[in-house]
RNA sequence: GGGGGUGUAGCUCAGACCGGUUUAGAGCGCCAGCCUGUCACGCUGGAGGCCGCGGGUUCAAGUCCCGUCACCCUCGCCA
């Protein structure tokens, strides 16, 4: 038997046709409006808000007194009769606004302290307070709605993948450390003192083993953990749609992802996405947009300026070109008036943040007069070329970076995004510009490590134009890897995998992983290749990022029920915490705790 | 690890640039009283401050200086 009057409807369920029904509501008090005689209670739960009326002519003094005790966030059970509101009192803002519940009886199930912030969507509250009292923030429809969308989207993904014959398999959370890649969380073993598991940065190795195991079509909505510094779009724990297929290649991965995303977005957001997605080679993305995750919602493409500016007397240009650098820029339409000298100085600092040593500029006013740091190097002929080749017209602003290729592309790419934000070039509609970025280089030379490092990961298949190219000119070999980009965010990446031991060993060797080391760290994996590994390919998509873009949110924190701060702390529980010395001893860990001041305690409810 | 921003009432913020001007304010919330059709109810009154923390300069510090902590953004990092 229930110890309290159990609800017969939710706070979002009543409509005009429920008139005269006897109901019980359970929920939180949203607000009480005590008019002295009549008293209105807005009662809230996940499903909505319903107005209840306590009428002193209907209830006895004891119940009236109890009603007057109610405060926001009290948990109550209300019993009463549904009645239509008089026409002039209908609240059209609310789904239940045509009715109200005339209270016959009420019980306070729990009291609440005054919450640290009001449970209202329009209340502006700092992230710090929201995270500390996350359970209160969860009562607000904005956060709850995001989690409901997350759930609906995940279900839709699972439905679509089920339909395509994919099977969801869970892979271990306690696994072995991988030598390449991001920093992993390490878990000490009590049973094996001095030995450690690692939490997976991704299920990469296991999903390939599942292919070798003949699972054929695998997916997992998988938690991934990385001990790296955080950003608005990065949490230490995040969720990927991880997917792998056998006997297929890029085309199969593209088509399954396109179809699954299209269906899930249609089901969850009632929005249509055009498939197939656009495709763009890495080099084209870098040349036109400066970044490997271009935002294609606006133009403002990067212009090649070597031809127009070579030999103009602007020394930096010629020096940079002679050293193999790039001279490129952006033409800002109407920018001559829209951007002041001071703002351009600010942009110079902005690109300096990405290593650019300078930002030259040229303004042409409405009458055609030139000004700016480039003006004295641009004669009539060069001006005509700028107009013809780059569309530089009167009233426009040309911003130029001359630098090493990597710096020139990056700084102009970031500058392009920044200008689009400032000048309002990003369309306000909800357009979704999906793009596959393909043909990444296989590896890059790392000055820091003095070796080649894999651009994607060391299990990625490469495409050699001739045998032995990987060894002779590794910088020129392309990986069969691809990224999925949406509106300037990288949603995820994947590749066709290596499936023979020989090719895998060639890549390990290229990356400077000695045969002994490879055997020790990846022996089990190389061995698996010797027992009939099928050709396979796959991808992993960051689902919080995908949802953040679909919901128009600037960070992924609200797609996570209990997120961590920029310093990877949980403000609700206080994690990470010290642990008792005995626990460390049992684990065979050194007990010397670093000297520290008093740690913040988790919230105790204030007041 | 580096850079930038923020930190003042429960919440969101003024005050700080140029030290003394009020007894550090506002809106919301909170408490009390009044109010029988409100819906962010209204009206009247009230309580509430280690000005993040520690040091320094000064006759005098919310305000200036140094350090430190927390949160946010970001570079590095994130195969």
Number of distinct helices = 18
Judging by the overall fold, what is the CATH architecture of the largest domain? 2-Layer Sandwich
Low-confidence stretches: 594-607
CATH class of the largest domain: Alpha Beta
**CATH homologous superfamily designation of the largest domain:** Bira Bifunctional Protein, Domain 2
What percent strand?
15-25%
Q: Name the overall outline.
A: globular
Distance between the termini: 37 Å
Tell me, rounded to a whole number, the average pLDDT: 93
Helix content: 25-40%
Radius of gyration: 31 Å
Sheet with most strands: strand arrangement: 6-9-10-24-23-22-17-11
- Assembly type of the chains comes to single chain
Biggest β-sheet, characterized? Answer: 8 strands, mixed
> Which fold name is given in CATH as the topology of the largest domain?
BirA Bifunctional Protein, domain 2
Strand elements, count: 24
Q: What's the structural domain tally?
A: 3
Secondary structural class:
alpha+beta
